[in-house]
Known about the structure:
Blueprint: H1 6-16, E1 30-33, H2 58-67, E2 71-77, H3 79-82, H4 88-102, E3 107-111, H5 127-135, E4 143-147, H6 150-159, E5 162-165, H7 173-178, H8 186-200, E6 216-217, E7 226-227, E8 241-247, H9 252-266, E9 269-276, H10 281-285, E10 292-295, H11 310-323, E11 327-330, H12 339-347, E12 352-356, E13 367-369, H13 377-387, E14 418-421, H14 433-445, E15 450-452, H15 459-466, E16 471-472, H16 479-487, E17 491-494, H17 498-505, E18 510-513, H18 520-523, E19 530-533, H19 554-557, H20 561-570, H21 582-589
Parallel strand pairs: 1-2, 1-4, 2-3, 4-5, 8-9, 8-11, 9-10, 11-12, 12-13, 14-15, 14-17, 15-16, 17-18, 18-19
Antiparallel strand pairs: 6-7, 7-13
The structure holds zinc ion.
Zinc ion is lined by residues 111, 113, 119, 121-122.
Amino acid sequence: xxxxxxxxxxxxxxxxxxxxxxxxxxxxxxxxxxxxxxxxxxxxxxxxxxxxxxxxxxxxxxxxxxxxxxxxxxxxxxxxxxxxxxxxxxxxxxxxxxxxxxxxxxxxxxxxxxxxxxxxxxxxxxxxxxxxxxxxxxxxxxxxxxxxxxxxxxxxxxxxxxxxxxxxxxxxxxxxxxxxxxxxxxxxxxxxxxxxxxxxxxxxxxxxxxxxxxxxxxxxxxxxxxxxxxxxxxxxxxxxxxxxxxxxxxxxxxxxxxxxxxxxxxxxxxxxxxxxxxxxxxxxxxxxxxxxxxxxxxxxxxxxxxxxxxxxxxxxxxxxxxxxxxxxxxxxxxxxxxxxxxxxxxxxxxxxxxxxxxxxxxxxxxxxxxxxxxxxxxxxxxxxxxxxxxxxxxxxxxxxxxxxxxxxxxxxxxxxxxxxxxxxxxxxxxxxxxxxxxxxxxxxxxxxxxxxxxxxxxxxxxxxxxxxxxxxxxxxxxxxxxxxxxxxxxxxxxxxxxxxxxxxxxxxxxxxxxxxxxxxxxxxxxxxxxxxxxxxxxxxxxxxxxxxxxxxxxxxxxxxxxxxxxxxxxxxxxxxxxxxxxxxxxxxxxxx
Length: 592
Ligand SMILES: [Zn+2]
């Protein structure tokens, strides 16, 4: 680490980035809006400006976005043009009326085609999202779309943008269930976009926790950060952070999604020590910004916890004391408690502790942060880091990142392959083996080259799934090798498990076969092109079950293999070979 006081580095950055207080990078540059049913009432095939009626609160909501410096574009399917139901001149008149009522937009993107035209721009295809981002001088992942039907959400996610669904009576319930983020109306959607934007890049840094005598509200919004009074603290004469202990227990995926929050801390600290569990160790080694990793299984976090014993807690306490941290930031998921660890950290004299806790922390926390349910895990971590005084620096961005990996193993084959990762540590989130077998057969028949990956305990599964048609890398992959295989792929087909987040970290599109045991908006691949498949309303929804509680694993077993092919097409991933004939496939399956 460079020998420079963190505060000096921070102020240099503030100066370098004039006009933006604090200089933290923003989550969103632009908001893309569907037109009919979102901005204005849906009047089918309307070519008459007199019939334009804004949705309730639309003007005020849009003005809030404009005031916040967000650029605005409309992205709209208008198949009435293809059907000859109105003319381009009439459409222009309607749009002039929309701007008269709702104010100016920075870009208008219109698909004039109908379904049978099979164009690339009609939502759910993502081309208009890409075009809008380009026209607005940004990238899809710095855009969020607001729409009223599933096509809007699918197009946004396939481009790597985020999406908010504002349902109308015409929205199908399954579309609402599948959406990562749902708001009751346009005003609520806008308020949440701005809240999330502010949560990771607050205007002011490092609230003066050390001097707070009474609880005070440090951040505005529905989930304020409470700066509670703590015990007497060591003075931090430098005003910056020396050694910061960051904590994320649990699995590899959990560690990867905490990466942005850890990078934010690292940008302001002299030294970052990460405490993780044994299952997260390999991922911890791939995280940028971590200087030292210490491993201990926390029995109040681990899903298969060992009994709490005096000697084990004594060992953990000694480990924590040896870190000699000035501060700690304890990252957790929403059903996990930071408080047992905070207590141990207090006993070894850590002077400043930050964590998210809905439970009352007493004097265990200096920064008690609150986050609404449903916020993406990486944003949850970033908002805690920001509340603790560590926003992402301007030369970083809110995205998953991992250290560079070597080229994929030779057995994966030439670039252009797709990875299918059928397993998961939690059976409820893995693919039904029969479905995985059928997906391989369908993809190979269509001309895709498939690589099947899995851990050392999944060798039988990957052999069954590869079936002589796909390259079987099961059991051969350390996490770094798996990361290399994923990083070299054209796309990854995977359940809600670690490799989905590895793919997001390397910018590889994901076909997410997502069991709804946890919220998709919170745990889905973050800021990477994604297509979600699977039944979002299956009875396992919201159960957090590790083993599927429903006979037949229906949330995933009812996926058609052809849906995976369609998803790859939406993601722009073409087969690397001509389609096989059925006979050739049969021969390959029989191993001849
Ligand atoms: Zn089109």
